[in-house]
Amino acid sequence: MNKDLRQIKSKYGEKMMQLCKTLFPTFLEEEGLLFQLLSDNFAYSKSLYYDIVANNMVEEFKNFIYSYNDVYSQFEFDLDSDFSFSLDENDDEIDDTFIFAQNSNGKTPQELLDEAGYKLYECHNEEEIQAFKHYYAPGEELCTFKGERLDRCHVFFAVKKDVDQIKREDFTHPQRQDRYGTSVISIQFLKGYINNVSIKNRYNHGKNNEIVNPDATFSNNLDNIIPGLKDAFCECYDLNVSNDINDFEIPGYVKANNGKLYKYNCEINQAYYCPNNIIIDEEKQVHEYDKSKYLIIDNYIIDLEHKTVSLFEDVLPDSFVDGLKDIKSISVVTNKKLNMKKITIDDNIEIIVNRNDSILYYKNNNIRKIKDNFMWHAYNLQEIDINNVEEIGNGFLGNNTIIKRLDVPRLVSVGNDFMPYNENLEYFNAPNLMPENIGYNVLTKSTNIKGGYAPCLNNQSYSGVIRR
Amino acid sequence: MKRVKIINKNRYDYTLEDDDKKEYVLNIEFYQAELNVGDYIYISDKVLKEKNLFAFGPLMEDKNRTEDDIIKVVQSDKEFYLQRYYG
């Protein structure tokens, strides 16, 4: 096997190796080049391949790597060939046949977008802009439709030829680069000397703000739609689009000041908490903690040597840490098959984390009183077992949306902002929690509770919230 | 959040200067608000570095906006918040 591919497999995994072998055959002719390009731009991670595929960003990834090399202009890779970029770890090897084609010169944006399955429209007046409003779902309309956008931008819309078959209701988990999001795009160029481009998404920001950077669809790189598109617009419309290499963005990744993209579990006050014992501070400086002495899970730093648990910054105190004082023992057991770790603290606290060291499960049946902001940033926590807790302060699991079950039979009081964003809670058992002993913003979005008993909730069957 | 001062305004192009005298030029459309040279904006560092067109307007109800979507405007006689509008 080629040395670069061996290194890529070692640091980024088998699937990434196969993908690179398929996408970048010419880079492999120069030893060291491809691995260098990857390691200059991406922290080592076996998750990278899966995140690129899950976010439909293979084309963008390809263009990003090729933007470092002139060879790209000679070849065109057909993603509609027999490839299947899969998330299944048991897949067979990817078929490595692909099609070479000469890159086309001299084509208009209309012709290129036609090849990409779009029809391009230029808007000359407000009426022509408003004609596209009907493509957007209620609550997802672009602010372009508020009017006067032509004062500052050249406005185009590109509409997929099969747009009538792409239904909003079929996309229950919107992603910026999915088929719906890219089925109607507004390509807008700033008027002026430099014509920066913004490619607007059909979801816009999404009904629940779930679409990140909707004004940077295709990373605002026209060549990610179809190669040559940027030059075509520049030539046809006399535009001066910035030649800066657009940053390659992946949702859930942050670029550190060493130029590399790192996957992160959570971001707090512009500090990013990443797998592999890495924290990136607000200056984008990478802090790497010795794995023999520390374990970082979500935003908690476990000092294995001194038996302490602390926060990187005390901007938002988290009572998870308060409850972990005078620790006598910490053990960490790795389950390689499941890609999980189990952390046991003083024999009565159990924490299970996933492959990215993000907390999935927490158990502590000794705890009676929980103070404020307990596990405020535990986005991935799926189960919590705190059966004997009696009092909970403000901000309990403030950002968690996925826990389905909470059994707290001894609980008698809760503060404000108690699981305020959780929409998935199905079972809530708090028989001793009375309405007069709860704060405001309690289970605000929990409208699907079907099991358990909680007199603190109103008579409309667990429709949640109670505001004082 | 970073504090920046509007030091120049040319239609939609705002030149902003932070406390370290570093300058940024952002193209921004403001809805229902008028900002002028001398005003201060508290804005996310991430937004300052983003290459895009921006629009900000009055805060909307019931939106799960992020901290990066909010700016605070401080003028000589008042201060208020605006949120980012996308699209």
Protein model, in words:
The complex is a heterodimer of chains A (468) and B (87). Chain A is α+β, with helices and mostly antiparallel strands and 468 residues long. Chain A has helices at 3-12, 14-23, 33-41, 48-54, 58-66, 109-115, 126-130, 229-237, 319-322; strands at 118-123, 153-160, 184-190, 197-200, 253-255, 261-263, 266-268, 271-274, 278-280, 286-288, 294-297, 300-303, 308-311, 330-335, 340-345, 349-353, 359-364, 369-370, 383-385, 391-392, 405-407, 413-414, 427-429. In chain A, helix 1 (3-12) runs parallel beside helix 3. The longest helix of chain A is centred in the first third of the chain and has 10 residues, at 3-12. The model of chain A is unreliable at 70-84, 89-104 and 459-468 (pLDDT under 50). Chain B is mainly beta and 87 residues long. Chain B contains one helix and seven strands. The longest helix of chain B has 4 residues, at 45-48. Chain B starts with a strand and ends with a strand. The chains are: A alpha+beta (468), B mainly beta (87). At the A-B interface, strand 3 of A face strand 5 of B.
